[in-house]
Structures are given as C-alpha cells and as structure tokens.
Amino acid sequence: MSAYLLRRFLYAFPILLGVNCLTFALFFLVNSPDDMARMQLGQKRVTPEAIEQWKRERGYDKPLFYNGEASGWGRFTETIFFEKSLRLFLFDFGSSDAGRDIGYDIAQRMWPSLAIAVPVLLVGLLVNLSFALFLVLFRGTYIDLGGVVLLVALLSISSLFYIIGGQYLLGKLLRLAPISGYDTGLHAWKFLVLPVIVGVLSGIGSGTRLYRTFFLEEAAKDYVRTARAKGLSERLVLFRHILGNALIPILTGVVVVLPLLFLGSLLTESFFGIPGLGSYTLDAINNQDFAIVRAMVFLGSVLYILGLVLTDLSYVLVDPRVRLH
Amino acid sequence: MPVFFLTDLLLFALLALALGFGFYAATQEHLRAPWRSVLRSRIGAVSLVVLSAYGCIGLLDSIHFHPKLPQQGATTGPSYSPEILSLLDLWLTPLRTQQEKTYSAPFATHLYAKEQIRLPDGRTVRDYPRLRFGGAHLEDPATQKAGDIARRSAFGLLQAFGVWGGLVALLLGWQARCRGYKQALSWLFGDPPRRAALLTLGLLLALGFVVAALAPYYHVFGTDKVGEDVLYQGLKSIRTGLVIGTLTTLIMLPLAVLLGILAGYFRGLADDLIQYLYTTLNSVPSVLLIAAAVLMLQVYMNNHAEAFTSLAERADLRLFFLCLILGITSWTGLCRLLRGETLKLREMDFVQAAQALGVGPLTLLGRHILPNVLHIVLISVVLDFSGLVLAEAVLSYINIGVDPSMNSWGNMINSARLELAREPIVWWSLSCAFLLMFLLVLFANLFADVVRDALDPRLRGARP
Q1: Which of A111, B97, B302, B446 is 20 to 30 A from A174 via CA?
Q2: Which residue spans of chain A are classified as CATH 1.10.3720.10?
C-alpha cells in the first residue's frame, strides 16, 4: 500500500512538470513578456522604458531558459522558467502582477469557497440519492418516465439560468435571502443559503440521472434476482442490496471531486459576490493577471491528481475485492 | 461577392462528411440497422426534426457574402458593400434593419422609457413615445393591437397549415402510387414515429409562419438596450451554438481517434507517451486551461491587429480558436475510451487471425479496429454536443468565450443579466435566449440518448 502511494506520488511529478511546461509555453512562448506588458499598459504609445520597468518590477526581464550572464547554477535558476514555473513545485506562488502575495490570498479565500462547495456537495448527494432511489422504486411506471423526462429537462437548462432565476425568485420576489454578499465568521450563513440552494438545484439533473443508471445496472444483476427469489421484500432488496453496492461507484465519484472543492465555482461565486477562489480566478482572468492564472492552473492540477489518488484509496476502503500493489 | 469564413468552410465540410457517411451507411445493412432504430423511436424522430430545423437556420447563416450596392453613376463594374451578410440576414432583413431607440417590450407599440415629446401644438409632454417600427401601422394601438395580432397570427397559421397540408399530400401521393391510397394513409399516420415527426413538423411550421407573419410589424421578443430586435439576435446565435457544438468535436476527432487506437494497439512506449499526454492535459481544470489559452489569444490578436481584414473575420477566428481550445480539453475522454476498446479488440480472435495471416499493422488498424470502435466515436460526438452548447454560454459570460461582437446566447444573457434590476424588469432578452437554448439542448440530449441506446452494442437488445 505505502509502496503504491509512493509510486503514485512519484508519477505525479512528471505530470505536474508537463502541466508547468504547458502553461509556460502558453504564457511565455506564444506571447513574449513584451506583448503582455504592452497589453497591460495599453496598446498604443507605450515607451520602451515603461515596458522595461513593468517587466523588471515583476521579474519578467530575465531570459527564458538560460541566463548567460549569471554564473554557476545561477545560469539556470535566474531565468523566467525557474523562477515562475519551477518554484510552483514548492507551493511558492510569488506575487501577482498587481503586487499581492498569491499564497496569502489563496489561504484567505479558500474558506468561503469551501463554505459553499461542501454544503452543496453534501446536500446535493442526499437529494440526488433519495430522488434516484425513489425513481428506481417506481421503475417501469409512468412515475419513472415522468421523472426521467423532468431530469433531462433540468439537465438542459444552463447553470446561468439557475443562478439568475434563483436570485430573482428567492432573493428579489420573495425576499427570503440576500441576493449577494458575504460576511465574516458565522454571520455568513444567511448569505450561503441562496447559493447552496441554487447549486443543489442545478446539480439535480445530471446527478440523479447518473445515480439512477448506477442503481438500474445493479438491479439487473444476478444476486438481486437471487435475493428476490428467496423471498426478500422489494424494500429490503433496494435498501440493503442495491443501495449498498451501487454506493461504490457513487462514493468514488464523489471522492474524485473532493480536493477540487477548494477551487470553488467560478460562476456561483462571481454571481453571489463571495470572496472565494472562484471569484479570485475570475477577477484574475478579467484583469488579465497572468501570475494568478498560472498559480491556479498549477494548484488545480495538484488537486486533481490528489483526487485520483484518493479515489484509488477509497476503492480499497469500500470494496474489499480491490487490493493495491 | 461571397465571403468564406473558416468556420463556414469547416461546417460545410462537416455536412459533406455527414452526408457521405449517410449515403455509405445506407448501403451497408449493419450500419443502417442502428440508425433505423433511432428513427423507429418516437423521441428520436421528433428530436431529429427539431434539430434539423436548427441546423437549417445555422446553415443559412453560414453562407456569407458582400451585398451588391445599387449602381451609382458611370462606375465600371458592380460595387460591393463592405458589410458582410449571410442568407439568414437577407431573409430577416426587416428584423435586422428595424432598429428602435432602446428597450421595448415584446409586441409593444411604445418605448420602454419616457421621453420628452413635442406635440403638434408646440407643447412638450413627458410620455412613452411610439416605436418607429413596432406596431407603427396602427392608428390607435390601444384598441387595434389585439385584433391586428390575432388577424396576422391566424393568417400565418393558415399559411402554415397550407404548406403542411401540401407536404402531407405530396408524401401521400408518392406512397399511393406504389401501394394504394388506403395503405399510404396508414403508412403515414398509422406509424407512431412518423406521425410524431409529422406533427412536430406541423407545430414548427405553425410557429415559424406565425412569427414570420408578425415579425415585420412587431418586435416579437422586444428590443434590447440599443434597440436591436431580440428575436434576430436569438436566431443569429443559433449558428454560434451549432458551430461550437459540432466543430469542437470534429477538430479534435482525428487526433483523438489516431492516438487512442495507436496507444491501445501498439502498447509499450507509445502507450506510455500517449497516456502521459492525455493525463497531463486532463489534470488541468478545463475552465482554467480555456481561460489561459483565450487570454493568450487575446494578447496575440491585439498585437497582430493588422492581420485581420474585418471585425467579423476576427470574431470568426476567435470562434475557431475557442472550438480548438475546447476540443483540446475534451478529447482526452474519447481518447481514453478508444484506447481501452482497442486493448480489448486486439486480443479478439479475428484480429489475431488477421495478424497470423500477415496483415500489416496499417491495414489491420484501418480495416479491423477502426470500424469496430466507430460507434464509440459517434456516441461521444452526439453526447458532447449539448454540453458544449451550454459551455459556450458560461464561457461567454465570463468573457473567455466568443467575441463580444458576435451574436451568442452567452453574450445575450451577459448583457441582459443586469437589466433584471430595472423596474419594470426587462425579461425578454433572457427568455428568448433561454427558450432557444433550452429547446436545442433538450432535443440534443434526447437525441443523444436514443443514439446511444441504438449504437452501443452492450445496450442493444437490453431494452424492449
């Protein structure tokens, strides 16, 4: 087991290196730092001095890969590739193009993101599971058919409309919750109600449909028929046999996304004005702050790989047939 | 003078590909069978009709040209306007040109906002002014409007019924020639999927003709902030949605298929490299990768502004790159599926037999492996479509989607979102985008389910 984990973490290294090279190519090879400086400072009438200064302040004035002017290891370390890309491996994100410390911002903004993402995940899981079980209980009837049609319809609505509709209906018409904003500490709960409801609603379509197919796949297996044949009641078969076994793919599917919860949701956070990592990323995109986008890309890949490792581990925990070597 | 945008050409290439495959499949029984079962299902037939309607609008909007200007004086040869129009624009000319001053509600005859109006006797009052085009033919809107709308709608319905009846009669006559009148009638209406498709077609025609009868005289979905007709924007957005939904998968398809099959068939080093490639791409959260790539594209385009002859061309190139970027983030799933399937196939007896007989790897991949994984490719193309249409709206909303000057549902939502705070609220832009997008995505989802059930050999026969 520990050998497996070690191997997985070693395998993560080349992947992260690949991600780094990709973002590096995107940010520094497609466009030179000069292009970025010109974009930031305004297109026309930029003096070369201003560009030089912009680059020097942000450390973009060094050579890309090889610094001939430095000596010793400095030839490789005093380059953009080392300072801007390889340093990310130490989780040293440096400072944003606007001059703020990215690592500090991320640590601060992680909590509001989690405050939304975790309730959405848990409540959503509960709602989707119950709805899917309900449909499976009535499988083959008009209730099932109507439920599936409803799910496909829910699935076909853009998440933008869920947010706009939720804000308008619950926030503006019924005045049940504040439309947007955030507060520190425990006072934040009333700002969280609306985003969580909207997040759960927008996930019902795809989530319930997926879980329903898991349940139906399980229900078609031989052991379920055996259970019924020996005279177990339909409810017992559903809750003890089908639910238990169908939980394996459901749980592992949830575990994959667990680390990514930290990143928050771009849309939800920006619509509801929540100062999480999602809105942080969105602001960076809109302000064209490349350092932040680069840091978030790296962080996202790390969390994704972590999610994959956790999934493998969770298989071992919930499914006794699986052994990792 | 015709103009060819990159996405136009690709769209028509895709159409040709689809038609070519269709004709080829029609001659091969094993390829025809699953598609026949798609058409045998009521949902499949209905969604195909609706999707074709969207497709026709999208294709009409993909034939671009510079309109000819009226001959002026003794200039030699015809002169062309710098403006680029499509066939759809030409057809929707009244919608395109009848621009109001600012917001107006659907079917309104008066502007949304009050203005100073100078009366004939010299006094000025603050009131809602009449619209320049919406209901301008009415003397007294308050009393005449309802009757006028009803009359025009009835006329549209009548037209639609005429066209539909003609179509039905044509089909009946065609069938009656070979099997008799009574048989033809039951062929047409006794068969559930055919009946459902005909009824859907009738509904669509009715909707289309009623809107066509009303649109030149009223703004059916109101006007937006600068007074442009919202229905026109919504219809123009169809092409953007279709381009994103189809070209994205088309662009990356060759790469995904090639790499997936190669990895599965050759294993070893090739497999490791290809797996590494797609794991790396997959591990970057797709929104961030798209954001990074689009940001870089913006910088590039701003620094090479002189390379584009027109704004429309620039917007089109951005659309193409968006498809490319979306494709890069979404091909990994297909590649992995194909690799797994090829791994399974290469151990099958028929592949082993071909190998033993000395068939070269290229022939083997092309003749024995590729046809057997084709259903996975088709299923994933159809399944991805609706997700991509939805993704376009979200990406355009966060400003990393299509060009802001291009008509798209995302841009419509983006500009209409803030107007919900107005009193009385401006709801029509949002509902137009919602309605058109919802219908497209809904029927694409339904169609995808039917196609998957028909094509997936594991599901075939599993359902009644």
Answers
A1: A111
A2: 102-318
Assembly ipTM: 0.84
CB proximity list for B447: less than 8 A, separation 6 or greater: B43, B44, B47, B48, B51, B382
Q: How far is CA B364 from the centre of its chain?
A: 37
Q: Convert the pLDDT of each residue in B401-445 to its tens digit.
A: 888 888 899 888 888 877 777 777 788 888 899 999 999 999 999
How far away is chain B from the Cα of A35, in angstroms, using its nearest Cα?
7
Confirm if A305 and A16 have CB atoms less than 8 A apart.
Answer: yes
pLDDT class for A71, splitting at 50, 70, 90? low
Q: Spell out which chain B residues touch chain A, with contact meaning CB-CB distance below 8 angstroms.
A: 276-277, 279-285, 287-289, 291-293, 295-296, 298-300, 302-303, 386, 390, 393-394, 397-400, 409-410, 413, 417, 420, 430, 434, 437-438, 441-442, 445-446, 449
Contact at CB, B284 and A301, closer than 8 angstroms: yes
Q: What is the mean pLDDT of residues B63-87?
A: 76
| The listed CATH number (3.40.50.10770, 3.40.50.2000, 1.10.287.3510, 1.10.3720.10) that belongs to domain A102-318 | 1.10.3720.10
Asked if pLDDT for residue A174 goes beyond 90, the answer is: no
- pLDDT value at position A276? 87
User: What is the C-alpha to C-alpha distance for residues B412 and B72, in angstroms, rounded to an integer?
Assistant: 38
Distance from CA of B77 to the nearest CA of A (A): 39
**Quick one: average pLDDT of A21-33?**
77
Q: Per the omega criterion (within 30 degrees of 0), is the bond before B82 cis?
A: no
- Is the distance from CB of B226 to CB of B102 less than 8 angstroms? yes
